[in-house]
Amino acid sequence: MTAAYDEIADWYEERFGGGEDPLGLHAALGELLGTGSGPCLEIGCGTGHNAGTVADLGWTPVGVDISARMLGHARGRLPVARGDAALVPVRSGAVSAVVTVMAHTDMSDFFAVLRQIERVLAPGGVYAHVGVHPCFVGGFADHSDPAAVVVRGGYRETHWTKESWTDQGLRDKVGAVHVPLAGLLNGVVAVGMGLERFVEGGEPVPGMLGILARKPG
Ligand SMILES: C[S@@+](CC[C@H](N)C(=O)[O-])C[C@H]1O[C@@H](n2cnc3c(N)ncnc32)[C@H](O)[C@@H]1O
């Protein structure tokens, strides 16, 4: 298994582990996931810094990630297993909740991951996705002036890129897959989950989109 994040795990922990949350990721996760109990699987859990938010809602957080170095930071925050999101090492129908946070753009075939999410969810289970906003974040978008974001051509094509307006982010280091908004929403519908709720975060232009979906009961 290749794991691009192995190279930057320590930097990631330092850069994003400090509690700053300008996009409102934790609030969005809380709003979408809601309170519950039983295991909540985070696919692409990274260093595990969403575990507290999940636990505060009453769920028992468990995580899967492909990067051993990221999981090294996660241990102590939640129980984790190393595994590929395209073949999640979890029994079918075993969990009532799955979350992905800032992870779909790191996965080469997110549609295969959506099929896995639907598979591991129990009937009636919820899927909360919190990710970069496909309309405003990507190699095609220049945020040099946050008040006047420039969105260039390239949005419509699903593609992988390391192109970025800044050298302080993730995309310039590990690259990112861009999936247009319609493709992302259609992907959730295509695996048979129902779309229930959406949230956007970040100012003055949204940088985050959250989606709540549910496996039919
Ligand atoms: C931007 S980090 C997000 C980590 C965490 N969810 C957070 O909010 O901080 C993306 C994570 O997805 C993981 N990842 C990428 N591809 C993966 C795959 N195929 N299977 C499992 N995890 C993967 C990376 O190793 C990395 O830890």
TrEMBL record:
Keyword set, alphabetical order: Methyltransferase, Transferase
Methyltransferase listed as a keyword: yes
CDD domains named in the record: AdoMet_MTases
Domain Methyltransferase residues, every copy: 41-125
Gene3D superfamilies, per the entry: Vaccinia Virus protein VP39
UniProt GO BP: methylation
Annotated GO MF terms: methyltransferase activity
Domain of life: Bacteria
Pfam families in the cross-refs: Methyltransf_25
Protein name listed in UniProt: SAM-dependent methyltransferase
Species, as recorded: Actinophytocola xinjiangensis
